[in-house]
């Protein structure tokens, strides 16, 4: 049960973002920009970064939601599955492997990111902007995971819930739905 | 030197990153403004103490010292008291409510999953309402993002507390949405 009363029809992050819409606005804006805005990384690649951090933070809701979004965007379920076990074995570019490893370090601490991990990403062609966005996406999910679990929000166990959520994240992105969420009641 | 080439290497901490990527700076500044200076049952001084404390636990010198300086400005305390935050509030007078909320913030810094019902109940016993608990968790989570962003990209930070005096006053009394204020001036 959540630590504060939240709308029952909106589990996970959505209920929190509706509870506190003023703080939700910049969080949503930042997420939309980083995960769906113009970038040389595809939305699917950026969802992988969100997924690996949420997975390492053991945040069930965020991991399932972003796995669902990544699966849809990449068109397969293996990439996420393998990445969670072993980044090096995942069917992604060497550049993505290096960026995902940076994200893993950011999950531990900003201080954990080494010059070597950055050099590796640059060696495989990562630009400064790609490195910047990788670090900021990983940092942003360090926020989300703590917000979602720190408030003890509900993580549904039904896989269909995340399928639906993943579809919403792919078709609508991260902006608040124009008419809110009453239709989910 | 930072891990990526910043247009102005003289700008410390997050300031250099805002300058590198103005698009992401907008929501990040708005989030800081909303969380630390927007409406809340907690005073801005209390919220800056939470920010400074979490940043200390994350070993992020720039965020710790700048937000500690902002807290001192709000609380009309001498900068010498900044180090008391690191020592667990032996000298700064804090209420039992804030003490209980700082305990929650420290749990969030480790992981959202560490926050227990007992932690929340203790805060409620000392007068914290839903909103105060929510704001504490989100501020702590947000600084787990800001700290990782600042240190994950290897930005530099002035060492001495004194170097943060004016910055702290600006954060406390002018706020975080720089561009808007510059336009207004």
Automatic annotation (TrEMBL), chain A:
Keyword annotations of the record: Oxidoreductase, Peroxidase
Gene Ontology molecular functions: peroxiredoxin activity
Pfam families: CMD
UniProt domain Carboxymuconolactone decarboxylase-like: residue ranges: 34-70
Transmembrane parts of this sequence: none
PANTHER family, A to Z: CMD DOMAIN-CONTAINING PROTEIN, SI:CH211-175M2.5
Protein name per its UniProtKB record: Peroxidase-related enzyme
Protein's organism: Dyadobacter flavalbus
Taxonomic lineage from the root: Bacteria, Pseudomonadati, Bacteroidota, Cytophagia, Cytophagales
UniProtKB/TrEMBL annotation, chain B:
Alphabetical UniProt keywords: Oxidoreductase, Peroxidase
Coiled-coil features, chain-numbered ranges: none
Domain Carboxymuconolactone decarboxylase-like residues, every copy: 31-73
Molecular-function GO term, any one: peroxiredoxin activity
A Pfam family: CMD
Oxidoreductase in keyword set: yes
SUPFAM superfamilies attached to this UniProt entry: AhpD-like
NCBIfam families given in the database record: peroxid_rel
Protein name: Peroxidase-related enzyme
Species of provenance: Dyadobacter flavalbus
């Amino acid at each position: 049960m959540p630590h504060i009363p939240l709308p029952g029809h909106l589990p996970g992050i959505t209920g929190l973002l509706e509870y506190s819409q003023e703080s939700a606005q910049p969080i949503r804006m930042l997420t939309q920009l980083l995960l769906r805005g113009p970038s040389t990384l595809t939305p699917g690649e950026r969802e992988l970064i969100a997924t690996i951090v949420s997975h390492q933070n053991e945040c069930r809701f965020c991991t399932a939601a972003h796995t669902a979004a990544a699966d849809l965007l990449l068109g397969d379920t293996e990439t996420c599955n393998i990445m969670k076990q072993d980044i090096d074995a995942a069917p992604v570019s060497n550049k993505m492997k290096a960026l995902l490893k940076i994200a893993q370090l950011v999950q531990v601490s900003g201080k954990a990111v080494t010059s070597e991990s950055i050099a590796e990403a640059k060696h495989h062609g990562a630009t400064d902007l790609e490195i910047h966005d990788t670090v900021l996406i990983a940092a942003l999910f360090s926020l989300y995971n703590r917000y979602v679990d720190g408030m003890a929000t509900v993580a549904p166990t039904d896989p269909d819930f995340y399928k639906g959520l993943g579809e919403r994240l792919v078709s609508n992105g991260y902006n608040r739905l124009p008419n809110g969420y009453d239709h989910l009641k | 030197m930072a891990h990526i080439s910043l247009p102005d290497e003289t700008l410390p901490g997050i300031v250099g990153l805002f300058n590198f990527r103005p698009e992401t700076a907008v929501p990040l500044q708005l989030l800081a403004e909303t969380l630390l200076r927007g409406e809340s049952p907690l005073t801005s001084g209390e919220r800056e103490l939470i920010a400074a404390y979490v940043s200390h636990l994350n070993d992020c010198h720039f965020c710790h010292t700048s937000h500690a300086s902002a807290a001192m400005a709000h609380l009309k305390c001498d900068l010498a008291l900044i180090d008391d935050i690191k020592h667990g509030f032996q000298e700064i007078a804090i209420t039992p409510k804030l003490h209980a909320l700082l305990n929650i913030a420290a749990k969030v810094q480790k992981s959202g999953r560490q926050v227990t019902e007992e932690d929340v109940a203790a805060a409620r016993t000392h007068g914290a309402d839903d909103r105060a608990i929510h704001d504490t968790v989100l501020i702590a989570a947000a600084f787990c993002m800001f700290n990782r962003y600042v240190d994950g990209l290897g930005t530099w930070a002035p060492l001495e507390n004194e170097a943060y005096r004016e910055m702290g006053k600006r954060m406390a009394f002018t706020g975080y949405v720089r561009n808007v204020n510059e336009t207004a001036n």
